[in-house]
Write a structure and sequence with these properties.
This protein has 3 helices and 7 strands, in the order E-H-E-E-E-E-E-E-H-H. With 141 residues, it is α+β, with helices and mostly antiparallel strands. Helix 1 crosses helix 3. The longest helix has 20 residues.
Length: 141
C-alpha cells in the first residue's frame, strides 16, 4: 500500500533539497513531526533516525538509499511489517522544483496498519509537503 503527496515549489531544487535532508529541523516546518534525532551522525546510507510524531509510536528509521541533491529513502521494520518513506526533489524549470513524499506499507501487518492509518498518513504527507514548500519559498533562513 503506497500513499504519496507531490507539490510544486517556487525555489531551486538545491534549496528544497537542503531543507528536506536536514531532518532534525523538520519540527520547525511541519506539525506532523515533534522530533527527529539522527543516531549515527549525518544523513547517509546506513544512518538511523528516531522520529517522534503525534499519534504514531516513536520509530527508528534506517536510510537505505540516498542520492545527494535528489532523494533519500528510509525504512522501519517490525515483524510482519516494513514501512518505507521516500523523499524526492526534482527540477521542473529554472528556479523551480517538485517534491514528492511517499510512504509504502508492506507485509501482512503493514497492509492492516496502512489501512488503519490511511487518513492520518495522507494528512501528514500533505502537511510535510506544504511545510517544505513554505520553508523553501521563504526568504528567511
Amino acid at each position: 500500500m503506497e500513499q504519496h503527496a507531490s507539490i510544486d515549489i517556487e525555489a531551486p531544487v538545491a534549496r528544497a533539497w537542503s531543507i528536506m535532508r536536514d531532518v532534525e529541523q523538520w519540527p520547525e516546518w511541519t506539525a506532523s513531526v515533534r522530533a527527529v534525532t539522527l543516531l549515527d551522525g549525518a544523513l547517509r546510507v546506513g544512518a538511523r533516525a528516531r522520529i517522534d510524531q503525534p499519534r504514531i509510536p516513536t520509530t527508528v528509521w534506517t536510510v537505505t538509499d540516498l542520492t545527494e541533491g535528489r532523494d533519500f529513502t528510509w525504512e522501519a521494520s517490525s515483524p510482519g511489517r516494513r514501512t518505507t518513506g521516500r523523499h524526492t526533489v526534482e527540477a521542473t524549470g529554472p528556479g523551480t522544483c517538485r517534491a514528492t513524499l511517499s510512504i509504502t506499507q508492506s507485509g501482512w501487518v503493514g497492509s492492516l496498519v496502512g489501512r488503519g492509518y490511511r487518513s492520518l498518513t495522507d494528512r501528514y504527507l500533505a502537511l510535510e509537503a506544504a511545510g517544505l514548500k513554505a520553508r523553501a519559498e521563504s526568504t528567511e533562513g
